[in-house]
Amino acid sequence: MAAAAAPPSMVVALLFFLYITTNRPPFLVVEATWCVVRSDASDQAMLAGLNYACAGGADCVPIQSSGLCYLPNTIQAHASYAYNSYYQRRGSDPAACYFSGTATIAKTDPSYGSCVYPSSPRNLFAYLH
Q1: What is the pLDDT of residue 31?
Q2: Is residue 5 part of a domain?
Q3: In the predicted model, is pLDDT for residue 117 greater than 60?
Q4: Which pick of 1, 13, 71, 103 has the fewest CB atoms within 10 Å?
Q5: How far is CA 105 from CA 1, 46, 64, 80, 120, in A?
Q6: How far apart are CA 73 and CA 104, in angstroms?
Q7: H or E element, residue 106
Q8: Which residue has better confidence, 116 or 128?
Q9: What is the total count of domains within the chain?
Q10: Is residue 21 part of a domain?
């Protein structure tokens, strides 16, 4: 038989207890991040990064001609979407946002119109001890 989950009031009481005994909030909220192209990247380097990301498991369907992120049809826009998809699929690991120095991690959502860039979790809680 599976153990019953703690009632919400019990969870709140535990969180309050942790706060008053440690004198600090028990949670850390992690900001959302995206991997995008650096503004000084060359077209040749971005194209190489775009190809690497798409071949390496990024979801590049949205930047195909019928996709929601096809427009604007520029290497910079397509590379940013592919870089971010690659980065998100690797758990937002900063090492997955390099692309030979052509990428940077952003804290501003690059989504526009119907083109939505996936992001890291906005509310990821971790107990601080």
Answers
A1: 82
A2: no
A3: yes
A4: 1
A5: 46, 15, 24, 11, 11
A6: 21
A7: strand 103-106
A8: 116
A9: 1
A10: no
Which tokens hold the place of 90?
């690797």
Residue 8 CB contacts under 8 Å (≥ 6 apart), including other chains: none
Q: pTM here?
A: 0.73
Contact yes or no for 81/74 (Cβ under 8 A)? no
Cα angle 17, 10, 27 (rounded to 5 degrees) comes to 50
Rounded CA-CA distance 64/46 in Å is 16
119 is a domain residue = no
Supply the Cα-derived Rg of the chain in whole angstroms.
20
Distance CA 86, CA 80 (A): 10
Sequence letter at residue 104: T
Tokens of 116: 């939505």
How far from the centroid of its chain's Cα atoms is residue 62's Cα? 16
